Amino acid sequence: MKKLLYCLLIPVTSILSAQEKPRLVVGIVVDQMRYDYISRYYDDFENDGFKRLIKDGFVFKNAHYDYTPTKTGPGHASIYTGTTPARHGIIGNDWFVPSIGRRYNCVEDTTVSVVGGVSNGKVSPKNLLTTTITDELRLYYNFTAKVVGISLKDRGAALPAGHNPTGAYWYDLMSGKMITSTYYASKLPKWVDDYNRQKRPTELLNVQWELLKEKRIYNESIADENDFEQPIKKGMNVSFPHNLAQFKNDPAILKYTPFTNTVIKEVAIKAIEGENLGKDSIPDFLTISFSATDDIGHRFGPRSLEVQDTYLRLDREIAEILNYLDQTIGKDNYLVFLSADHGATDVPAYLYKNKMPAGYHNNSYIKSILNAELNKKHGEGKWISSIINEQVYLNHELIKEKGLDAKAIKQTVIKRLMDEDYIVEAFDKDVVAMRMFTDPTLIRLQNGYNNKRSGDILYNLSPSDLNDAFGRKGTDHRTPYAYDTHIPIIFYGKGIRSGSSVRRVDITDIAPSLSLLLNISLPSGSTGEPLKELFD
Description:
CATH topology of the largest domain: Alkaline Phosphatase, subunit A
Largest sheet: 11 strands, mixed
Strand content: 15-25%
Mean pLDDT: 95
């Protein structure tokens, strides 16, 4: 009824132009998807998933993140706002807040509570400082356009869905249910409740995770038995098959399996049905974030059979979504884009064994040597409050109490950091704030810096150098280097011609491109440029 009223109030010419727009936009973000997964696994994909997007859509082969740290929260925020952490404020998955003396989750909101589950429900987008493309769609159509966000992770749902969506839903690791928070609603809609009652996580875990295809197909990966992988859970094998049935009553285990993506696909389809998305000329927007690729990638690394098998299975999930859209929305009525929130480095131990540059460091060790240096100069004290996102937060209360000059303290810290071989550069935040860098890597440092949330000193590690706090197996991401920044951007569907480009583009170019394709306002902080190839 609201959409009908909206159409009665706007000019006929606007109605006609609205009919030329896609009825539904689907944004797909694949967590930790390096660009090279497309080319490495291409021959093993089937025809209706990734291959369909690549052959019939437009592929940007040289797309990058233009800031650091490259993490999930900032990645999703940057895709949907069209700007970097310097402007949208999501500088990491979490950051240190001196006023409360602890780390702070990027979507944390202590004023709200969980709806439908028992944990990770104090969530909202309140820390996101600019509007999103989804916000602008809602604003343009006076909130008659529907926006729904679906993800395993709270940040993968809350940030893309924007500040005032129809709904945002994520997975509760304790209950195995899809949940939301009181920021969005006081109760779950019927379609989410109905899905939760199916208890799909228990069903999906009551299996052995075996290879989807014959083992000979997986020749793009290293041997299954190797020294570079962590088990899903202590005591489990690191090679196939993975016996999941023993953990069928532990919903948290699901995130380390490709079957998480099955849940997210099913919920996304239920969202289209339950919210009647794409049913009229006013565009709706569905955001989907597939996160199993990240949790499995962290555990097993980019060369593992587990990662390859996860992508071959994801290929089928995407095919099912596309086929469903064909049947229900119509082939010429929807627009899809696919990208990733970051990449990942190869396991440093694997690189080192193969004579490639790589290494390990330890944040606790860095903190200890910095405290020791400052203790030597200024007396005993807890000088370093936190080290996170390759940023050092100083204890300013202690500095003030001792009557010391913070600038001098920062220079001492920088000098000591630079004595470590694995740190290639370190800067006072005041230097970064001047935004005078011209080197591409340092520009990414600037773009990731937010004056009110970032630390006092920012530094870059050597390429493929990881924190070994969790051992020297598996991988991570967060750096300004190509293995973390180089990701795919693919547009497919209504109004998109097939083709590809090797022109360097940025992740922040997605949102303004969508704004112009939908003929609506750009997000409020947008700094990206429209992808001109989509308009040729």
